[in-house]
Amino acid sequence: MRAVVYSQTGPSSVLSLVERDVAEPGPGEVRVRVVRSGVNPTDWKSRAGMSQGHDEVVPGQDGAGVVDAVGVGVEDLAAGDRVWLVLAQHGRAYGTSAELTVQPAERVIRLPDEADFDLGASLGVPAVTAHRALTAAEGGPTRLGPGALEGRTVLVAGGAGAVGNAAIQLARWSGATVITTVSSDEKAVLARAAGAQHVVNYRTSDAAAEILTIAPDGVDIVVEVAPAQNNELDLAVAKNRGTIAIYANNGGDSFSVEIRATFSRNLRYQFLLLYTLGADLIAAAAEDVNAAIVAGALRVGEDAGVPLHHFPLEETAAAHQAVEDGAIGKVLIDIG
């Protein structure tokens, strides 16, 4: 089979296309013929040197395809099933940038008939992360769905990003009022296409004043991608007993917290990382994500605020570079 690999960390040029033997699924494992592989920032960051731990790595946490074979003990999936993948390369050497990948069955999720493989390969990291951010609030729902966030206001920082877009769509499906911040008119168009009712360009306005005009009592949940840059804004607009859910460190690795301004309003910081989330939360997220797909509430493409950028497998290095350079939308690798 064809696979893209790297044996040392570094720039995208360390990736190369090779031929490798096809592995057989062991007990509790599933072999998937990959049709699309999704590229996320975590993929290029790992390749660039954030982590390695293997002599050779096939990158790719997300993907979608068709079950090719199952190992002993796998009962819920069978050859021919359409599926999407989550955490495919976490703790393993072989992810989704290959024609075939063998995965633990719990990382292989049945793909609803309503979804194509482009959507399936766009789900794992963005949608599961967004789900956790939206279900992390004190007294909030642990599951999403119609009415789950009714009466709540959600602020999504960076609504044109992949996680931000998924958070907007899942929050709207669950009944929330959604405000998002963006840095350009182009990104504002994408955030509105995703479903945000209110879009604030933080470069051209007083973002805190504008958000508080929309939500005078403050917002219930902040889905935060850049806490080092945005903590002052988050503190200004979060309501009493609000939650600031932080899933990335864009723009800085640390920030200070003004203690009195934070504890006086009983604010909660919820840090989250997909890799250590736990099987129970990932399974719950996958179930809700599939329900959102069936309802037509979770989509990709220009009309959903997620422009798609396709690369063939042999141009995986260019796909990684596109994400590293800040491509707006979703980068996908076409394999099958």
TrEMBL record:
Has keyword NADP? yes
Which molecular-function annotation in GO is an example for this chain?
A: oxidoreductase activity
Enoyl reductase (ER) domain ranges (all copies): 10-333
Pfam families xref list: ADH_N, ADH_zinc_N
What UniProt keywords are attached to this protein's entry? Answer: NADP
Q: Any keyword NADP?
A: yes
The record's SMART domains line, in alphabetical order, gives: PKS_ER
| Alphabetical list of PANTHER family matching this protein | QUINONE OXIDOREDUCTASE
Q: Any idea what this protein is called?
A: NADPH2:quinone reductase
Please name the taxonomic classification of the source.
Answer: Bacteria, Bacillati, Actinomycetota, Actinomycetes, Propionibacteriales
